[in-house]
Amino acid sequence: MRAPILLGLAFLAAACTEPQPDSYVTRTGGAVAGEPAGTDARNEACQVQPGRSVPADRPVLRAREAYCGGWTQPAARVLELSGSATEADLDAIAASGLWRSWLDQRVTCAAPTRTTIAGGGSARLLACTRRTGGWPHVAIVTAGPSGPVVADGVATSLPVIERLATGRSGGGGTAAGGGGRSAALELAVARLSADAFGASDVGRYEQLMALGRDLNQTENFAAAEDAYRAALAVQERVMGRDNPNSSTAMLHLAINLSNQRRLAEAQVLLDRAASLAPRAADPATRARVLHYRGLHALNGGDANAAITLLQQAEGAYVALTPNLTAREGDGSDLLADPLVQSAVLGLAEAKRNRAVALSRAGRGAESSALIAESRAVLRRAGLEPNMMVGRALRTEAGTDIRMGRTEGAAQLMERAASRFAIAAPGERPEAVTLFLAGQQRLRGGRRPEALTAFRAGAAILRARQIGLPVGLVVPYLDALDQEATANPGLAGALRAEMFGAAQLAQRSSTARFVQQASARLGVSEGNQAVQGAVRGLQDVDRELRELFAERDAAGPSNTALDARIAAAQARRAEAESQVASAAPGYRQLLLAAVDADSVARSLAPDEALLTMLLGPREGFVMVVRGGRVDARRVPVGEEAVAALVTRVRRSSEIGAGGVPRFDAAAAHELHRLLVTPLDSALRGTSTLVVAPDGPLLALPFGLLLGQPVQGDPTGAADWLIRRHAIVHVPSPQTLVTLRAAGTGSAAPLPYIGFGDFVPPSGAQFARSFPANRCGTDARLATGLGRLPGTRAEVLASRALLGAAPDRAILGAEFTLANMRRQRLDQYRVVHLATHALLPGELSCLTEPSIVASPPGGAPSADPAFLKASEVLDIKMDADLVILSACNTGGPGGEGGGEALSGLARAFFYAGARGLMVTHWAVDDAAAALTVADTLRRQQGGASSAAALRGAQVLILDEAGRNLPAAFAHPYYWAPFVLIGDGRRAGAASAAAPAPARL
Predict the structure, then answer these.
(1) Cβ contact 799:791 at 8 Å
(2) pLDDT, tens digit, for every residue of 91-149?
(3) Separation between Cα atoms, residue 618 and residue 639, nearest integer Å
């Protein structure tokens, strides 16, 4: 139960501890049309319209709101009050009272300063800082035509405030409209540069923070990361990198990284935020630092540290929630203060999170009591949103699980799912909880109820094209496997359901890539149709999130709102269809499942697809062949398989002592676990399509050994590549989509190649990887030496395929700008003989990247990196893209295979049909031979899979004959794999025989 509970324990803490900006209300569809109000201090055009009143000590004659720079939140609010406006009146209103109390809840202000506004009128200016975001803010009290005027807003809105206060709503420029200079404006400008920011910057920041909150609430941590990262960038651009008020966005970004298990990156941000928090305008920041440090410790597996930190966070929140413990009721007066609302929600979540930590630490009784306390906090405040109640029920279920109360846990999970169905129907939290309920029903021996829950959750995942962590999906396969054993007559359909269910699992790096790719398409200037379609999809997603929030606040029954949600969901389905129509390759970027029948129709009679899913303790391997699915249980979990992969990888790569002895026992054990159980189904297949999972993504399947070997294996050993041509694919859906695109390129030219790059300098790498958080990466990147062997590799490939001499672009000419100038969609083979860096190698690298030569005078290495999301902007029509210096291992041996899978998806979207890539640093001679012989065979009519197999079998056959005997070692012949089909042969056999001799 460890992984499922961890998955969602932090998301509302990252969401609900941020107070709603209720001092600024979005304009509704029925708002009165605005009138011109001139421009603000940044020359952004403003409009004024009737607005909402706020607490004031005197009757409000008129309330108006000004909107500037296209921002949909008011940049300023101006209230005209009745009564006298003497100097003493102005002093009193500015110093205390209802309006000043309302203002102090939202901003922190210096003492009022006596000044004058344009026209000479007396005024009191308050220089303030917004508690949310730390943006400079102003408030002013002055004498208007009918009495006192009180106003506040973004600092750059002061010229507009002055116009409205003095009765001049039109006009322009930064003067208030005649009658003398504005001393108030001069004071404000002395505090900050009027050009530093404007209302649109604040609006963009708040929009991004709200987006991050909404995405976090639906447990989309990768997308929330992007939103919070962009919000932090806006803030740091305007206020500087070390402004203490950036700590809130920094904390939200950190916890979303932590939720994705990117713990080192999160720790750096948490440390930065902790150093800034004491000076932040929002007094809840200190509590939030403790809270998020506790969540981070929990994500890292340290329950005891989490308990201590979360208890400290509770104390800090309590200090901000006066008299909460004595309350029972709606709490509306208490929650009118956004700071208190933030603290109440933070306190409830900190208690719930500590309950999780106590449960993990084996203190179940204390955990149950603390969950009840968390619910009581919300109840006293009159604040029990369905999303929070659902999470509280799910946490309580987790405690029951650890105490062995399976039936109680299942019932709590089902109640939680019903709450999520109200708060966000058909979204990820509901699906997660249904899978958790199914898991408990299965443990309790109630398989029919388990399957009902699993299938309901699976329907949501398929409709939303999202996935769940592997540990949640494996029990679904377990239930189906048990059902198939118990009902042999239904086994065929149940095995096919297993195949589809396995595709509902996703790993974090894949989800991250999909988010990066979708975001990139939304801003791409290369294809306006795609851009418009993706943005339309993003807009309807945003509308749905707002409707879900409204639904959660509306109570259990609201038919009209339910109808609006259903209509929006239908519009989202239509928007997804429009995206797929505008960009046929878009499906490569989705976490979509395909059924076994679709895969079977894509396979030739002599082909089979092998796929697998590895859970924490066990897994399943499945094969699709001849229209049917066969499945077998793998008796070990992901960790054991990863250990075998590590053994094989370490024995395949050259080290300081040279080429090591190959671990034949580990290679055979992987074959025994993954391939041998399905030997009968695979017999007679010439091409094996493999969709690996987890650590297996970093392994060339061709080096698995079908039979045990005594001593060092020779070229004649029972390598899997001798039995089959092998195609690797990121997922079964990738195979179906690629094969629907046709069998080969229609590009007129044979080849273009790039190689022998000039590496960026150490100073350039250091600027791209800052020493304070990425110093290790900078040192590793600096070690990326030039690859002189790639020059000969590219020149030989060009000559072999008969391309023009200038189609080999080498050395300093190999820049990304030069590469983009080439019409790559005119070439059937695109050869990138350079380093492909993967996040498994460099921890601060968020995307797979291809390295080229930096342009002259580049200040950093950034212009030399082609990121995976940027590949989406390239247009190709290539049978084959060759990446001959890729390494899926890296110093940690983690994540590289999954990152390579994301890079492949990007190239498939761009128009490539296959990638021929290396899994480790290659021997120059062996690489040149493999590439050249593969291209020669493909040029002669073989499929890419058969061509690569032929080249590899040739090396095995010739080792000890015309090649050194050492070439039988996988280091030399096995690093290259084919991801995707590449060129598919017409009637030719996929496993065309290799020549007997060189």
Answers:
(1) no
(2) 999 999 999 999 998 888 989 989 888 778 899 999 888 888 888 889 999 999 889 99
(3) 10
